Amino acid sequence: MKVLGISCSFRKWGNTDVMVKECLLGAKEAGAEVEFIRLTDYEIKPCMGCMRCAFKGQPCPIDDGVSQVFDKLVESDALVIGVPTYILGAAGILKMLLDRSMPLMFSEKGRLLHGRPAVAIIPYGVADWEGLTAAQISIFLLALGYRIVDRIIARCQGPGEIVLNEEVMKRCAEDGKRLVLGLTDYAGEQGICPVCQNSLLEVKGLKVRCPICNIYGHIIIENGKLSVKFEDPHNHRWTPENMERHFEEGMYPSVERYLKLKDKIKKSLAKYKNL
Ligand SMILES: Cc1cc2nc3c(=O)[nH]c(=O)nc-3n(C[C@H](O)[C@H](O)[C@H](O)COP(=O)(O)O)c2cc1C
After folding, report:
1. Residue 11 near ligand 1, beta carbon < 6 Å
2. Domains in the chain: ranges and CATH
3. pLDDT tens by residue, 99-126
4. Are 140 and 81 in contact, with CB atoms under 8 Å apart?
């Protein structure tokens, strides 16, 4: 078994590196082959939005390091990925990579990732400034089809200081082993949504909705404890069937609609030409 560790922090020996590496040490102890990479060592250009991957089934025309990273994902059996919190969200490089992942999602190779276990590592520096990082890393993993085994959200500020936090280090090492030995997932202990594990919910009339997984539920307060009863928790947006429906019904028909309106759109856009 091979476990890949990806750090999405630019800071060498920073907290993300340390936590990801501690998971890898745990995995190694449990018998796995491990590899550590830093996303910032790869050139990752922005998605151009050409949609050739989605509508024409063509490979991405951008020549950079993204395909090397995807090859590493496909060649490993499990993933540990860490991203630091920057201004209430994940460091931008994670989103840059996610935006470029459509060709992988459309490929046979990408399907190999479905159901593979992953651990998410989320360092943040200041109390109550965790922001949306955990949600963003859940989106990354679910969009690629991974199963979230655990998310470690840890407060740490200076580079590498997390190494002194015994509790977090222990959980990292345990999670590394968990990936290899197939032990019970921690996921479900944290957050409210049973799929993405986040506590973010939108209020929609008398219901609530997980905006990440698109499942609806009702808030229940019993004995002073709040919980949410989701109506159809297995029918979330990330199931292979719903993802396929998203492409078939949400995306592909937009081509025909656009082509019908193309001339009209071009005429209406003419007034912006000289700005
Ligand atoms: C540009 C920048 C923005 C940051 N914004 C936040 C923030 O919004 N909330 C927070 O809790 N920590 C924030 N931090 C602190 C980092 O999340 C924290 O130091 C983390 O441990 C860094 O991980 P690293 O050592 O792997 O780089 C920020 C750090 C930087 C460099």
Report:
1. yes
2. 1-190 (3.40.50.360)
3. 999 999 989 999 999 999 999 999 999 9
4. yes
